[in-house]
Specification:
The complex is a heterodimer. Helices cover 75% and strands 0% of the residues of chain A. Chain A is mainly alpha-helical. The longest helix of chain A has 38 residues, at 194-231. Chain A is globular, with a radius of gyration of 24 Å. By secondary structure, chain B is α/β, with parallel strands linked by helices. Classes of the chains: A mainly alpha, B alpha/beta.
Chain lengths: 337, 338
């Protein structure tokens, strides 16, 4: 029950944070020069139409009234209408966010699958060949700009070898699966649509690896240093003294003890990637949140900017909460307080 | 013979060069016998223990033979070591606060040893864990199984370490300063527990300590180490009553005694020299009030005073030399008489 109370407390704490963020973004985006009404009406609209539009969009009301109206709608799930796509922002988000979420989950999966074992091996073979190899790989991953790596992947795997697709989420000609989560792979799995599932997976590979390259490097290094510290502990010696094998001690005793900093870093990169990676999404024409946000900013599409900002804030806070809960799952010494 | 060390030498890498940590260490432990290893910090006691367990750093150079029930541990493969550790050969460490994995429950940590070395089923293991907790004198064993080390006191944690070490009925138990980190009343309880376990299990124990009080309490025989060498070996009574090596004498004089009105405790001046700065002759010469020229030039050999008692000091060599001369001259006299 302690755990439940802790989680509820943390969720309640999210309210003032989100309030602060919404106030800040709302007032900043409304004091930026540029008139959304004029932008929406087009360059050749006459003054009267613009005035009418201003009135209709409520732009003449005091800012706090506009903010109050915005928040009232927000609570009801209405994020306003995009001045650019002319459809409800909620619909836009429903369309773009799952693409980003899917890509992020996939790249996090690769990161964990490769980064952590590589870091463990690196630590257990400190200064040996395997460690040096992992070090070089990690450095390459971190040092390589994502867009450059993406282009190289495209040139090689798409243009030269032609074994992997280079853009979009599905092969042309395939209809997206029925939207349940909005993530094509999962929806295809749920509906048993194997053709779509295969296509969705292979479309994830290149952008997923491109996005994971940096985080794999960081996680590998973090795992290595965290493990090195843990491997000097007395309880590791005890584990060997009991007759535990190298792998048993590494993965059964040391890794969990070295998990804290790794979890922190994973949480931060996860939260960050959920906001969408503009570079990766652009290179692979991935219809994700990052590109949507950049478009919204370019066209002074305030409802969209507001919505994306608040969404990213909510996601970040949620991921943080998840990580905090995971800390306590990993380490019983931290009690819910 | 349960354990026999012969000329064990250990070199470890310190600051890019190898330094000698153990120098020709030889001793034996018989079944059911408790052998104490005493000496100041840095004299190689713990390294002797870790050499027997083969829990040394990767680049350690270990020479000599360590025979455990006639098998040479120094020649064991990784697999063979894993099989013997925690099973026939187990060890208790100095600091119970850091020696248990903080993220695993007590039950899981004891059970792990059973899982690694026995064929017991899961429910049998769980049962055995509770039994073990009772054997080491812990109350409410059933609940304790689900608790984490940080919820327990130092003494309780050391009892759990003992339970882990005892889980597979080892033939040899190595205790590296098992009571040093505990407060005095708890120390006494732990020693009492060890004594009773020893009686029950017929195992050999190596008790590493710098506390001669602990030695007097539990040991049958004592090995005194100084700067990586064995300097004296004797039965526990003999050692306290008739110490031969000046270092042993110094150690014994530094124990406070009840009822004595002496104001100042005996102490040995200086500290153990660093392993890379050892003198060439007797390692103790620089701190020894009896040191002679010979001591600084040559290592004293091990002199056997009785079958059970030996020490390595030039003073003894002289005594023995004199004895030899006197007995020799007697013999000459007797021949002359005939």
């Amino acid at each position: 029950m302690d755990a439940l109370r802790y989680i509820i407390k943390r969720i309640l704490l999210m309210i003032p944070i989100l309030f602060g963020i919404s106030v800040l973004t709302f007032f900043i985006s409304n004091t930026i020069p540029g008139d959304p009404a004029r932008l929406a009406a087009g360059p050749h609209a006459d003054a009267k139409i613009i005035e009418e539009l201003q009135e209709k969009m409520g732009l003449n009301d005091p800012l706090y009234v506009q903010y109050g109206r915005y928040m009232k709608n927000l609570v009801q799930g209405d994020l306003g209408t995009s001045n650019y796509s002319h459809q409800p922002v909620m619909e836009d988000i429903k369309q773009y966010f799952p693409a980003t979420l899917e890509l992020t989950l996939f790249s996090m999966f690769i990161t964990i699958l490769i980064g952590i074992p590589l870091g463990v091996i690196s630590a257990s073979k400190k200064d040996k060949l395997a460690d040096q190899f992992a070090r070089v790989m990690a450095l390459i991953g971190v040092a390589m700009p994502a867009f450059w790596l993406g282009i190289i992947f495209l040139l090689f795997f798409y243009l030269q070898l032609g074994i992997l697709p280079g853009s979009g989420r599905l092969d042309t000609g395939l209809a997206p699966p029925e939207s349940i989560t909005g993530m094509y792979t999962i929806d295809a799995l749920l509906t048993g649509n194997w053709a779509v599932f295969n296509s969705a997976i292979i479309h994830l590979i290149l952008p997923g690896i491109t996005q994971a390259a940096v985080t794999i490097g960081m996680i590998t290094r973090m795992t290595r240093s965290s493990m090195l510290e843990v491997l000097n502990s007395d309880y590791i010696r005890t584990a060997f003294a009991k007759g535990g094998s190298q792998n048993r001690v590494l993965y059964g005793h040391a890794l969990r003890n070295g998990m804290m900093p790794i979890l922190t870093l994973l949480g931060m990169t996860f939260g960050h990637s959920l906001g969408g990676s503009v570079l990766v999404e652009s290179v692979f024409s991935w219809p994700g949140l990052g590109r949507y946000a950049v478009n919204a900013i370019t066209y002074l599409d305030f409802p969209a900017v507001m919505a994306v900002t608040i969404l990213i804030a909510v996601l970040f806070i949620t991921v943080n909460l998840l990580i905090d809960i995971l800390y306590q799952v990993v380490d019983p010494r931290l009690n819910y307080d | 013979m349960l354990l026999e060390l012969q000329n064990v030498c250990l070199e470890l890498k310190r600051n890019h060069k190898y330094v000698k940590i153990l120098d020709e260490v030889s001793f034996q432990v018989n079944q059911g016998e408790t052998v104490g290893i005493v000496g100041e910090s840095g004299c190689g006691k713990s390294m002797t223990a870790l050499s027997i367990m083969r829990l040394l750093p990767e680049k350690a150079k270990l020479k000599g033979t360590i025979k455990l029930e006639d098998e040479d541990v120094t020649k064991f493969s990784k697999k063979a070591l894993e099989k013997v550790r925690g099973n026939k050969l187990s060890m208790i460490f100095q600091d119970p606060l850091t020696s248990l994995n903080p993220l695993h429950t007590v039950g899981k940590q004891i059970e792990e040893t059973l899982m690694l070395h026995t064929d017991l089923t899961k429910s049998q293991r769980k049962q055995r864990v509770v039994e073990l907790l009772r054997e080491v004198g812990l109350p409410r064993a059933e609940e304790l199984v689900h608790e984490y080390p940080h919820q327990l006191s130092g003494g309780m944690r050391q009892r759990i370490m003992i339970a882990i070490a005892m889980a597979c009925n080892p033939s040899l138990l190595i205790c590296d300063e098992p009571t040093t980190a505990l407060d005095v009343t708890v120390q006494a309880q732990i020693l009492e527990l060890m004594n009773s376990l020893k009686k029950m299990n017929e195992m050999g124990i190596i008790m590493i300590t710098h506390d001669l009080g602990v030695v007097a309490e539990v040991c049958d025989r004592v090995i005194v180490m100084y700067a990586g060498k064995v300097v004296e070996q004797a039965g526990v009574k003999e050692l306290f009553q008739n110490p031969k090596h000046p270092y042993t004498k110094g150690l014994i004089e530094s124990i406070p005694k009840l009822g004595e009105r002496k104001q100042i405790l005996g102490s040995i001046p200086g500290t153990v020299p660093a392993p890379d700065k050892l003198p060439s002759g007797c390692k103790f010469a620089d701190r020894c009030s009896y040191a002679m020229d010979t001591c600084r030039r040559k290592m004293p050999p091990m002199v056997h005073i009785t079958n059970e008692h030996s020490a390595s000091c030039w003073l003894l060599e002289e005594e023995e030399g004199e004895q030899f001369v006197t007995s020799g001259s007697k013999r000459i006299e007797t021949t002359l008489h005939h």
